[in-house]
Amino acid sequence: MNARARARILLVDDEPAQRRGLARALVRDFDVLTAEDGPAALGLLATTRVEAVLLDLAMPRMSGAEVLDQIKAAYPDVEVVVMAGHDEVDAAVAAVRAGAYAFVMKPVEPEAALSIAIERAIERRRLAERARALEERVGEHEQLGEVIASSAAMQDATRRALGVASVGAPILLSGERGTGKELVARAVHRRGPRAGRRFVAVDCSALPAPRAEEELFGGERESSPDGRVGGGLIEAADSGTLFLDEVSALPLEAQARLLRVLTRGEVAGPGGEPRRVDVRVIASTCADLRERASAGQFRDDLLYRLGVIVIELPPLRRRREDIALLASHFLRRCARRHERDVKRIGPEAARLLREHAWPGNAGELESAIEHAVLSARGDAILPADLPPSVSGRAGPDRRPPRDALVLPAQLCELPYAEAKERAIDAFDQIYIGRLLQRTGNNLSEAARQAGMDRSNFRRLKKKVASRGDEAAAGDVEEAGTAAAPDGDEAD
Questions:
Q1: What is the residue extent of each domain of the chain?
Q2: What is the mean pLDDT of residues 417-440?
Q3: Which of 25, 257, 323, 412 is the most exposed place for a label (fewest CB within 10 A)?
C-alpha cells in the first residue's frame, strides 16, 4: 500500500514472539496495533478506529471465534482476517462463514499471502464505504428530485437555473446531448410556483415538419370538454411549464407562432382568433442558435426572446467528478429494473469509467452501466463487463493491439519444446510489462491483480527481467560478431 492510503490494523495473537515478528513485518505497509488476547483487542476497538483485524483463532481466555463474533456484532464495518494452524482448517472455514474476510495458514509469510489478504480486506472495506456514501448522496438527490451532480461546474449551472425558478421569464439551456437539460428543466418546474401544474416535454426534432404547427398549436378539431377548440401541446401546458427540447429543429413558421406565445401569451386558432395561454417556456439546444440565425434557419427575434436567461450545461468530460455519482445512480436503477444482484463497481472498472471521454455524455454512461449490469456474473462490475468502447477490449471487428501475442512464423521452424518456451517468455514479458505499467510499478497491486502472492510475483518479475537482459546481451554479441572482420574476434 502507498503512504497516502496507509491503514491502521490490529494484530491479535497470544504468542509474544509471533506477535512481535508479524508486527515488525507488517509495519512497512500498515500502522500496526497489537493485543495479546480477545478482551484486550475489544478494549482497543472500543476507543480506536481500525480498518482490519488480523486475528489468531487459537487463544486462551476467549477463542478467536468468540472475538470474531463480538467484532462483527459491534463493528460490522471492520474486516477480519483469521490465522489458523493446519489442524484448524474447519474452524477457519467456519470463521469465514461467520463473517471473516479470509483466513491464512500458519506459519504465515508476512510479505506474501498475509499482506495481500489484509490489503484486499481493507480495499473491500473502503469500496463498501465509498459505495454507501454514493448511495446516500444518490438517494438524497432522488428523494429531492434534484439533478445528480457533485462537480462545481454542474452545480453552478443548476444553481443558476434554480435561482430563476420563481420568475416567469423563458430559459434557454444549451449543451451537448445527454448533459441533463430536461432534468434541469424539470427541477426548475418543481421549484417554481407552477410545481402543481403540468410539465409538458416536447422533442422538437421528433416532430414531422409538416405537422409541427398542428402538434404544438392545435388545428381543426372538435371542441374539448371545457368548451375550447381542441388545442395542441402548448395549450396542454397552460398554467404549467412547456419544455421545448432541441428548439432549433422547429420550422420557421412554427417559430413565428411560438414568438407570439412568448410576447403576447396567445395562440392563434384555426380561424385566426387568439386564445389566451399562460405557460412558462424552457427551451434547450445543442446547436449554436446564433450560427443558425446567421444562416437564416432561426429567427433573430425568437432567439433574443428565448435567450433572456441562457445557461450552459457542461459535458461529462469536463465534470469527471460526477461520473462515479451518476454510475452509482444508473447501477441502482438498472439492477432494480432487470432484477440483478449487482451492487458495486470494481476499482479497475471505476478507473475505466473515469478515464473514458463520454462523447455521448450521461446517456452513453447509462447505456454502458446497463450493459455491465446485464453482463456481470457476480455482485461487482468488472472491466470485462463494460462495453468494448469503454474497456478497450478488442471487439470482433477490431485488430489486435500492437503488443498482442502473435505466433511468429519462425517459431514454427523450431522444435516444439523450444518454440513453446520462447512463446511463454514473450507472453511473460508482455503480461508483466503491461501490468506494472497499469499499476504504476506497485508490486503489491500488480500481484493482487495477477492473482499471485507478492513474493511469487516478484520472482516472476526478476525472471522476466533476467530474460530480457540475456536477450539484449545476445543481440549485442551477435551484432559484434557480424561486424568483425574475417578471422578477427569482436571486442
A1: 3-136, 164-313, 317-391, 409-483
A2: 78
A3: 412
Q: Do the domains spanning 3-136 and 409-483 agree at the CATH topology level?
A: no
Cell of 429: 514479458
How much is the pLDDT for 453? 75
Q: Are 277 and 262 in contact (CB under 8 A)?
A: no
- Under CATH, which number does the domain 3-136 receive? 3.40.50.2300
pLDDT at residue number 483: 36
Q: At what angle do helices 361-375 and 347-355 cross, to 10 degrees?
A: 160
Q: Which fold has domain 317-391?
A: Helicase, Ruva Protein; domain 3 (1.10.8)
When pLDDT is cut at 50, 70 and 90, the band that residue 271 belongs to is low
- Strands, E, within 341-486: which ranges? 344-345, 380-381
Give the global pTM: 0.56
CATH number for region 409-483: 1.10.10
Which grid cell sits at 478?
551477435
Dihedral through CA 184, CA 185, CA 190, CA 194, nearest 10? 160
Of 236, 22, 221, 37, residue with least CA distance to 110: 22
pLDDT in tens, 291-333: 999 999 999 999 999 999 999 999 999 999 889 889 988 998 8
DSSP classification of residue 110: I
pLDDT tens-digit readout, 445-483: 777 778 787 777 888 888 888 765 555 444 434 334 333
- The CATH homologous superfamily for domain 164-313 is P-loop containing nucleotide triphosphate hydrolases (3.40.50.300)
Q: Name which of 14, 16, 131, 121 is nearest 61 in CA terms.
A: 14
